[in-house]
């Protein structure tokens, strides 16, 4: 019964996402969201949603009036079950991408657990896969645009040699 329900919910999410893309085509909205790059042992926690092919990091839309760091912490819990105090999240950068007939401004936050490896749990409905992936392997994957922009800005050679995956964002 659970497997059938999971499949039905995944199908509903695919249909809803396609409907959202039709809305974006008609309305051409500007949306705001957050992504969270969770690093552990030099690896990045990636996810794959049931309704999108590219790999991503946990994230989602801001609720009206919601603080970005609070939204990032909320999305981390909702998508992979990892609780983090919003004060521990470091905003790395912000990107505006134009995809699927809408403009989306996304704030990317980072958290580095160092040697600690937070356990994650996915619902197998919205998020169908998650795993820690080495940087070189991540860069070879089909990635969401914002994730690719983030990793390109982060400079992969610095990632491989740095004991901490966090670094200050570039000065404006």
Name the features.
5 helices, alpha+beta, 35% helix, 172 residues, single chain, six-stranded mixed β-sheet, 6 strands, Nucleoside Triphosphate Pyrophosphohydrolase
Explain this structure.
The structure is a single chain. The chain has helices spanning 2-27, 68-80, 135-139, 145-154, 156-161, and strands at 30-40, 43-49, 59-61, 90-99, 102-112, 127-134. Strands 1, 2, 3, 4, 5 and 6 form a 6-stranded mixed beta sheet that branches. It has one domain (2-161): Alpha-Beta Complex (Nucleoside Triphosphate Pyrophosphohydrolase). Strand 1 (30-40) and strand 2 form a beta hairpin. The protein is α+β, with helices and mostly antiparallel strands. The radius of gyration is 16 Å and the shape is globular.
Helix/strand layout:
Elements lengths: L1 H26 L2 E11 L2 E7 L9 E3 L6 H13 L9 E10 L2 E11 L14 E8 H5 L5 H10 L1 H6 L11
Parallel strand pairs: 1-5
Antiparallel strand pairs: 1-2, 1-3, 2-6, 4-5
């Amino acid at each position: 019964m659970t497997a059938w329900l999971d499949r039905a919910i995944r199908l509903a999410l695919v249909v809803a996402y396609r409907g959202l893309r039709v809305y974006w085509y008609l309305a051409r909205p500007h949306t705001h969201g957050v992504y969270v790059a969770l690093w552990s042992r030099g690896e990045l926690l990636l996810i794959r949603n049931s309704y999108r092919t590219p790999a991503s990091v946990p994230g989602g839309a801001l609720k009206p009036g919601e603080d970005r760091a609070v939204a990032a912490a909320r999305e981390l819990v909702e998508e992979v079950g990892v609780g983090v105090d919003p004060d521990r999240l470091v905003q790395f950068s912000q990107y505006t991408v134009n995809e699927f007939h809408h403009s989306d401004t996304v704030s990317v936050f980072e958290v580095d657990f160092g040697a600690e490896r937070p356990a994650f749990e996915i619902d197998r409905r919205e998020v169908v896969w998650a795993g820690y992936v080495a940087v070189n392997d991540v860069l070879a994957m089909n990635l969401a645009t914002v994730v690719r922009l983030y990793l390109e800005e982060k400079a992969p050679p610095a990632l491989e040699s740095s004991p901490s995956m966090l670094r200050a964002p570039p000065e404006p």
